[in-house]
Every structure is written in structure tokens, then in C-alpha cells.
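**Reference record**
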Amino acid sequence: MPAIKKRKIAREAPQQEDLSDSEAHSSASEDAAPNTTEQEREPSEAPKQAPKSFKELGLIEQLCEACDSMGYKAPTAIQAEAIPLALQGRDLIGLAETGSGKTAAFALPILQALMDKPSSFFGLVLAPTRELAYQISQAFEGLGSTISVRSTVLVGGMDMVSQSIALGKKPHIIVATPGRLLDHLENTKGFSLRNLKYLVMDEADRLLDMDFGPILDKILKVLPRERRTYLFSATMSSKVESLQRASLQNPLRVAVSSSKFQTVSTLQQSYIFIPHKHKDLYLVYLLNEFVGQSCIIFCRTVHETQRLSFFLRLLGFGAIPLHGQLSQSARLGALGKFRSRSRDILVATDVAARGLDIPSVDVVLNFDLPGDSKTFIHRIGRTARAGKSGVAISFATQYDVEAWLRIEGALGKKLPEYPAEKDEVMVLAERVSEAQRSAILEMKNYDEKKGSRGKKFAKGKRSREDMDQEEG
């Protein structure tokens, strides 16, 4: 590959003093009712003659080279649909699942516009969770590496002062969770988004599911009306429709799938029907079957996630937990170890099911079935991505029959049962039983150390500080 020429975005002149609160709210009230007549453009599949290169979409050479350096060989369906429209200056509603390439679909048009008219606080991306915010920022910096893009992340659980210092350096792109962004808009002296050019609301359905609605309303009131807005969501609920009407102007809707319960052909799905008391036993059996492959094990609760992590480590597996009661540094550390393959088993609650960039997951095990079919689809979507093959196996016990039938109904097909060898499973019983007893003691010590730290998760409404931290 030829050497990439770096072009540095010039620092713009310092901005004028911030508007007063009264001026900002006056401006917001004038901007509160944008024209939102939505135009449908909703192909269920990629265009008939799908573009073979990013250059065909209208992207400049430097961004095409950046795509190549990031390993993006050809545009995905959502990129092929969204990027040309975004380059025309249209507001967009993008309906796409995690793993479809939607981050690049909104990042690339913003970066191209930034090169034409560089300025600080040029783009704002709102994300529902801390991990997703960091992931999006990394994508902007990677795709914008040839033009020296500066981005900063504003999320809960991190020091406000250091974030304020980062804002003082006038980044081009801000990626934030809504609660922490509003904290800075209200409390950080000199910080304003009155010159913002682009707003992205990623995983909008999840933003609203996590009760960010009132905070989003406050943020939208202080943003300029003259901006481009992109809203990306896996589903189009009534709440998302309302958010769209309040924030977008004459948007075009693009989608890449006709069914929200569609799965890829390279995914091998099955279930294993077992007594509840033998779940741990069959889990160890399956991990031995897939030894050396990267695996995500999904659990319903934080307690079970932590217990399984202890249990599997005691048996010699490289398991690491990911859930909402870990510190931010511990969560990022867990993701880093799993991505680098220094740990090949991630035991997670649904904090990891959507939005996170975890490439090359070979196996997904649903140790606990989720409460709804949509979450099931998001979980198994962690594997068999970008044309690769993958395996998803779900545990169903005597207590899960109705839930499993609902999932199969949503999928529109009966899944095969995984052919476990019972004799081989029962050989593991003694070692598993011993590890279970030791894991109980480990959990007791863990809970004692944690003390009252976890109690805040059970006390009604969360503070802004914790809203971007998944409870599960």
C-alpha cells in the first residue's frame, strides 16, 4: 500500500465568548420545531449494483486511504446507502444493527466536511454507554488519522476536571453519553456547542430505553438549528419517531434489513436442553469442545456473571467478567484483554450485546436466555460478522420452555438441538462440583469487599453520573 500523506487540520481562531444562559435558551426555543417531513428511502437490501470502493461513494482520496488502512475493503450496505446522501447534506435516519458498519457510515461524511471547513466542536456523537463512546472515538481518530483529527470522550465515571481540560484544547469531535455532556454544558466554563455542525445520535432506541429522553431534550435546546443530524437505531419505536420529529429536518430514512429478526447464513445456531442443576456441567463440556476459540457467555445477572468467571478460572479457563458494577477502568481492561486474546472467554451481561466492537468472536453461549427476542438477536449478532462463520448455542432448562418457544417464533424457524454426549459430560461432574464450592467462597469474599458499593443499582432512579453505566 502506498504511503499515506498526512494533512493536518489547521487550528481555527478562538471562538467568541459564550452566550449567556438566557440567550442560549432563547435561541433554543426558536429552534425547537424543525421541519421533519420524512422521506422514505428504505431498500431492504444493498443496492443492485453495490459500490465496490469508497471512492465510488464520493469520498476524497485521503479518507479512502484511511479506510484501506483500517481494513475496510468495500462499503457495507448501510455505508453504500447512507454516505452518498450524507455527502449531499441531508439529515438521515439509519436503521441498522450492530456490526453493519454504521459508525463509518456517519463518521466518514463528517470527516469530509471537517476537512472543507475545520473548526472546533464540529461534530457531536451521543451514545448510550461508556464503552460505545470510547469505541466511536477510536473510529473517528482511526479514520481521521491522515488529517490529524482531535476527538475527546465525555462519559460518567471519569474525572470532570480532566475532561474540562480536554475540552479546553478545542477538539473537532466530541463523543459523549448524554448525562455527562449535560453536566459539562451546565458547569464547564467557556464550553458551548453553539457552532456545532453535525449531531449524531447512535443507538437511539437504546438511548431512550435507558431513560435519557429528558436529558436529550435539554441538550437539543442548546444546539444550533443550522446543523446536520444523523439518527441511527436498530429499531424504529414510537419513542424514536418522537425524537426524530424533534431533532431532524426533512430526513431520509435508509435501512439495510427487511426483518429485525434476520440472522446471517454463516451463523450456526442450536440449543441444548438440560436440567437447570447441570448448567455449569454442560457449560464446561461446551468450552472444552470449543477450546482455543474466542467465546462470549451471556448471563442475566451481575451475580451470575461474576460467579461464572470465578468458577471457570478455577477450572483453568481464561475467563474475564464484563458487567455494569465493574469500575470503568476494569470494564475497559476486560474488553482490551478479550480483543487482544490474552483472555479468550468473556462472561458478560447484556452491556456487551450491543454496540461494542469486539471482532472475531467465534462462539456465543446464551447461558441464561434473555427476556425478549430482540436482545437474543443482539447477543448472537456478536459472532458471524463481516462474512465470517460463527456458532451460537443457547441453554434451555425446564424453566425456559415458553421463553425458548417465543424466541423460535420470532426467528421463524425451529433450531436443531446440539448433540452433546451425556457420558462425556458426566465425567466432568466431580471437578465441576469442587469448582462450584470454591466459587461460592470466592463470591462471598467478593461481596464483602464490594460492601455497599453495589446498592446504588437497586435504588430507583440513577443519577446522571451512572445513567451511562449498564445495570446488568
Remarks:
- The mean pLDDT is 85.
- The chain has 18 helices and 14 strands.
